Amino acid sequence: MSNIDHSQPRPGTRPALKPVPIEGRPAKRRMAFHRYRKLIHLICLLIFIILPFFNVMRFDIPRQRFYFAGYELWINEFGILFFTLLFLLYAITAASMLYGRVYCGFMCPQMIFSEAANGVEDRLRRLINRRGSRLSVKQRQLAVIASLYTLTGLASVFLAFVFISYFVEPRDLLQRLLIFDLKSAGGIAGAATSLIIFLDFAFLRQRFCKLICPYGYLQGMLGDNHTLIVHYRDKSVEEERDCIECRKCVRVCHMGIDIRKSPFQIECIHCGECIEACDEILGRFGKEGLIHYTWGEHGEVVTDRQRSFLHWIGLRDAKRAVVILVLLFYASGLTVFLSMRDNVMVQVSPVRSTLFSLEESGTEIRVHNTFRVTVANRQSRPAELRLSLVGLPGASIELSQPLQLGANESVEKIFDISVPPTALPSGVNHFEIASVAQPGDESVNFKMTFITPSNK
Ligand code: SF4
Ligand code: SF4
């Protein structure tokens, strides 16, 4: 108990409580936020690294592809792309409205790496102070700075590599990195990103969240009086306050703020570490902590299980129910779009620069019409496309053999369909071109017209 760091009480408040012998156990700590946050940070870091490598999410700019949840969307599939981005945007907005800035506190890469940089700097300082006792204070400071900047530089190159992998295929990027390519767009972007990340984590860190990040400012507009916040609740000034002014909640705060001043400080990222700190300190006196996650300034504490399950998970009014319904609508629409999407896109159109042509071969004359087929294999395995004719008696198609396409390959072919002049009535004849793509047996029929001369 002697290691509790009590600061001087504020004027007008009672002196800090002395730790008293507690009968039974101290009040139970609600949640080890620090430990859980670090675990979530680690999981998020792994996800951040893995996503582009397994094409779970990547906007491949050179190839003009958007990889999402295992699907490879082409840039001309604008509808699905737009819907996917809208869904992601809406999901972030809905999460902010319901749960405040939990993304900032638990999942944001800027916060994760800023805290990691702070932790590495602290450890380096302790290590060099312990091992370098023969060095002067200035030499030790220089050693800390040199080793910190070296580690930050290496980490910046790695993080820039992962970040650029969200836009450029990782194997291409690695090859450019290995030959130190500073001429291509990918190489220049990698170098510039490494420099920005280095400056960010060497000098800026959490200042970025306080001064630059638009999401923090946006949060102020998205939240309302039922949004999850971190709130300090104590008795009124007239009564005897329970806060012992130990300021541990301030010391553990990564953003360097005092949550007791207001729950609506722009810097607060709702990480919950001050909750754990206060629980720990007051728990030693057998008391409950004074800082909580609450549903708005006047709402109940999150751990209050008296309410219904829907209230407990944050669905507290009609507005929230509508937001969740819209989100589900987006999610189901996106799922339907993705499941209906053809892996092999086929387009067939007539080439009408000449309506028809007549070709003689020996004693036989045939009427020819020209068509164009455009095929895009939008998957990472080879595909085969077979075309056939429906409703055009006596006709033959030039593309009688299946078209072979490699992974992600596009092909355009001009081909003729021909018939003997006596096989069809003169003028316009309606028929269909049937396409069947393998694997997947995706079939489409295109309505077409075949034109024959009127004086056959
Ligand atoms: S005040 Fe508490 S919840 Fe807010 S950032 Fe600081 S430690 Fe996290
Ligand atoms: S709110 Fe809790 S942690 Fe913060 S100063 Fe008061 S007693 Fe200490």
Distance between the termini: 108 Å
For the largest beta-sheet, the strand count, sense and barrel status come to: 5 strands, antiparallel
The residue-averaged pLDDT reads 84
**Distinct ligands:** iron/sulfur cluster
Give me some keywords for this one.
elongated; four-stranded antiparallel β-sheet; single chain; 14 strands; 3 domains; binds iron/sulfur cluster; alpha+beta; disordered N terminus; 456 residues; Immunoglobulin-like; 41% helix
Concise overview:
The protein has 456 residues and is of the alpha+beta class. Helix content is 41%, strand content 21%.
Report on this structure.
The chain is an alpha+beta fold and 456 residues long. The protein folds into 3 domains: 34-79 and 103-209, no CATH class; 221-338, no CATH class; 344-452, Immunoglobulin-like. It is 41% helix and 21% strand. The protein is built from 13 helices and 14 strands. It has helices at residues 33-53, 78-99, 102-107, 109-131, 137-164, 170-178, 185-204, 206-211, 214-222, 248-251, 273-283, 309-312, 318-340, and strands spanning 57-60, 65-68, 71-74, 228-232, 291-295, 344-351, 357-361, 364-377, 383-390, 396-397, 403-405, 410-419, 427-438, 442-452. Strands 6, 7, 8, 10 and 12 form a 5-stranded antiparallel sheet that branches. Strands 11-9-13-14 form a 4-stranded antiparallel sheet, with no helix packed on it. Strand 2 (65-68) and strand 3 (71-74) form a beta hairpin. Helix 4 (109-131) packs antiparallel against helix 5 (137-164). The protein starts with 32 loop residues before the first helix and ends with a strand. The model is unreliable at 1-24 (pLDDT under 50). The site of one iron/sulfur cluster has 15 residues, from helix 10 and helix 11.
